[in-house]
Design the sequence.
């Protein structure tokens, strides 16, 4: 079975945690002791029914306030697919946690309260899903039972989204009316919506096509660790020197010629190893260990790439940033920049624009970016980065900014495509 990662988003009290709890409960993916603990907590809180939101709201502050603060991950499976779901907070103060939880998702579920309709957080989270290049989007119009299952209200909210969705880069959008509290259209189709002919939420999650979501064009392998087991009891392991990491793009095969960047050395893949044994080929997003034919100088932070579709490289970068820190971003500030498996020093050269979340228009040359602002910036790094545009590869086109001293993650960046591919003079080993 394949694995679908999805994240919930939306405003406060739109029912994100309840929806995930209902998915887990109705798909029989929770244990009896977990359900007993939630029932007991619901009784202590004075809830009239079992509060399924408590299955994901695990922090004491979350249960006291009835809101989601941190990202909660839950795992479940059906006979058709395995799932990892990220329950992200809806409050504007915790938008940074929403960005974190959605950054690795294949699909985003944006919940909308049928009574409230499209509000600022609905627009912000939809825009962030587009910015993060999440390929699939579900607009779950929740609490339809509180508007008497009105088809007109459903169509009104859908029309409000469709007025701005064409301006965003999201190709696959599905609208589903549901009631997370009662379970209508969550796991099973509801008799309350005879006017809706689409699948339930779980039915859509089980069947949405994700095989083509990964970038399989252009091999990318950021080196995380140089693997030297050095086991004297096993002569093969004693001589073993492999490069371990996660494939960030493309396909690699035994015998394939590869290029090590930034050094420009060229070699050939001799072996591909996993915990379960050797492979003849591997692809994104597998974690593997590569053994090269030649003993080249490779270390953490280097990138092994194929000879076709080369990435870019440089010290002058342009990026879109989601700013996550109360201290505003200003030009001239210095940060650590973490990209794939390496960390470099960087300075913000300029702030080119800021997005008006109400109109999605760019406001040129703002003086700063406040917390939760989204803008376009220029960065200058202390040494060249090997990267792709985020629209091409979500793994090699993403980076974060870290504040020196506190080590706080202050910004999530999506790099724009390089002007031209990296230029290197190959160092061959008679291959």
Sequence:
């Amino acid at each position: 079975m394949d694995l679908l990662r999805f994240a919930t988003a939306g405003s406060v009290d739109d029912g994100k945690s309840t929806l995930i709890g209902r998915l887990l409960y109705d798909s029989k993916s929770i244990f009896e002791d977990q359900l007993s603990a939630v029932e007991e907590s619901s009784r202590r809180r004075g809830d009239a029914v079992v509060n399924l939101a408590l299955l994901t709201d695990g922090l004491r502050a979350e249960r006291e306030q009835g809101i989601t603060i941190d990202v909660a991950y839950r795992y479940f499976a059906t006979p058709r697919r395995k799932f990892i779901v990220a329950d992200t907070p809806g409050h504007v103060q915790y938008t940074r946690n929403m960005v974190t939880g959605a950054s690795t998702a294949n699909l985003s579920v944006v919940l909308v309260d049928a009574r409230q309709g499209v509000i600022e957080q609905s627009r912000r989270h939809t825009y962030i899903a587009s910015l993060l290049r999440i390929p699939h989007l579900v607009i779950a119009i929740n609490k339809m039972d509180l508007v008497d299952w009105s088809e007109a209200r459903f169509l009104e909210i859908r029309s409000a989204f469709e007025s701005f969705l064409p301006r965003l880069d999201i190709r696959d959008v599905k609208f589903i009316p549901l009631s997370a509290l009662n379970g209508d259209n969550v796991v099973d189709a509801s008799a309350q919506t005879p006017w809706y002919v689409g699948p339930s939420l779980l039915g859509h999650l089980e069947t949405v096509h994700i095989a083509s979501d990964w970038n399989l064009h252009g091999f990318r392998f950021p080196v995380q660790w140089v693997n030297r087991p050095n086991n004297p009891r096993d002569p093969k392991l004693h001589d073993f020197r492999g490069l371990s990491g996660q494939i960030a793009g493309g396909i690699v095969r035994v015998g394939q010629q590869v290029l090590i960047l930034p050094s420009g050395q060229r070699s050939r893949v001799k072996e591909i190893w996993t915990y379960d044994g050797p492979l003849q080929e591997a692809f994104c997003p597998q974690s593997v260990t590569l053994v090269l034919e030649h003993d080249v100088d490779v270390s953490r932070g280097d990138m092994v790439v194929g000879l076709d579709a080369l990435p870019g490289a440089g010290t002058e970068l342009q990026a879109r940033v989601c700013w996550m820190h109360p201290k505003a971003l200003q030009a001239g500030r210095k940060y650590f920049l973490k990209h794939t498996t390496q960390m470099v020093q960087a300075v913000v050269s300029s702030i080119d624009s800021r997005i008006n979340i109400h109109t999605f228009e760019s406001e040129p040359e703002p003086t700063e970016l406040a917390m939760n602002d989204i803008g376009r910036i220029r960065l200058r790094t202390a040494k060249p980065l090997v990267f792709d545009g985020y629209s091409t590869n979500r793994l090699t086109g993403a980076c974060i900014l870290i504040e020196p001293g506190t080590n706080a993650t202050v910004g999530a960046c999506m790099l724009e495509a390089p002007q031209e591919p990296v230029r290197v003079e190959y160092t061959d080993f008679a291959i």
Notes: Residues 134 and 161 are 17 Å apart (CA to CA).
